[in-house]
Amino acid sequence: MTTPVKVAVTGAAGQICYSLLFRIASGQLLGPDTKVQLRLLEITPALKALEGVVMELDDCAFPLLDSVEISDDANTVFDGVNVAMLVGARPRGKGMERSDLLEANGQIFTGQGKALNDHAADDVRITVTGNPANTNALIAMHNAPDIPTERFSALTRLDHNRALTQAAQKASVSTPEVTKMTIWGNHSATQYPDLFHAEIGGRNAAEVIGDQAWIENDFIPTVAQRGAAIIEARGSSSAASAANATIEHTRLWLQGTPEGDWTSMAVRSDGSYGVPEGLISSFPVTTKDGDWEIVQGLEIDEFSRGRIDASVAELTEERDTVTEKGLI
Ligand code: NAX
């Protein structure tokens, strides 16, 4: 057994965490040889519910779960953490404008960025799931000047997984046959799930499918609006699949992407593919030993260019809004 890893999770009494925490504690994030110390953050009114979740964690008697601490103080929870999953966020309330939502979340992510900056371990890796995820990650990153910018990411692996399944079902293959999928841009309805660089059974996915109309009119909108479709069907937003993607995103980051494949991760742009430097935007990335690299050299045709630019324009607007509000 190696040294236990400290994993912080925020929004711990929420619905994503009701799946996420149990999967982390059972070893699905760090593997069967690593003990985990869970450090859970909630707002004060949700602490009682969180106590109930902790009772359930206890009742699983997970061999790999070394300890669980809960608090409503980010400085306490983030103390010494190696991994931080920022799931908790302020949902959009009735009559709330997008800029109000950015501001409400800005308050949360400035504070959590500062607390991570002051208390997290030197090797911390941070993933933001709570929406608007890309811009929340941007805010946290700007408020943590001592943490290298490449340690911040936002989740687009759920969109990636949705795209894998849509493509696999269309081509009547199983999901592992679909590789090199990319989600570009924002985790929002403007995201661009890209089949033109993906492969099915090692061949170009768009060519294998051979149906441009399906790609434009079915595939892209189905993936981009899947979250809304789940709410419509289930009456509440994606939870187990979001937990699954949060685990997969972080596991791949720590353990590496398989040879010959990549994942989608929203990370700080270095200007690649014309995405303005500094935005947290989703790219195709490979990972190794806890580091990521944006896949280079993909040719972007006019169709893909337009889609990427539209999503990046939205991210630029979000950045401008949070800059005006003094959050970054
Ligand atoms: P819930 O509303 O069930 O849970 C959120 C929890 O966060 C609540 O228990 C709340 O008390 C807590 N919270 C609020 N402010 C907090 C703070 N300052 N510190 C700590 N905890 C705080 O939402 P849930 O369904 O779990 O979703 C969580 C977030 O994930 C939402 O923002 C949601 O929009 C986002 N999602 C992101 C996805 C992605 O792919 N990036 C997909 C799924 C999901 O929609």
Automatic annotation (TrEMBL):
Substrate binds at residues 92, 98, 131, 162. It comes from the Bacteria. Residues 156-324 form the Lactate/malate dehydrogenase C-terminal domain. Its EC number is 1.1.1.37. Residues 5-148 form the Lactate/malate dehydrogenase N-terminal domain. InterPro entries: L-lactate/malate_DH, Lactate/malate_DH_C, Lactate/malate_DH_N, Lactate_DH/Glyco_Ohase_4_C, Malate_DH_type2, NAD(P)-bd_dom_sf. Catalyzes the reversible oxidation of malate to oxaloacetate. Belongs to the LDH/MDH superfamily. MDH type 2 family. This is Malate dehydrogenase.
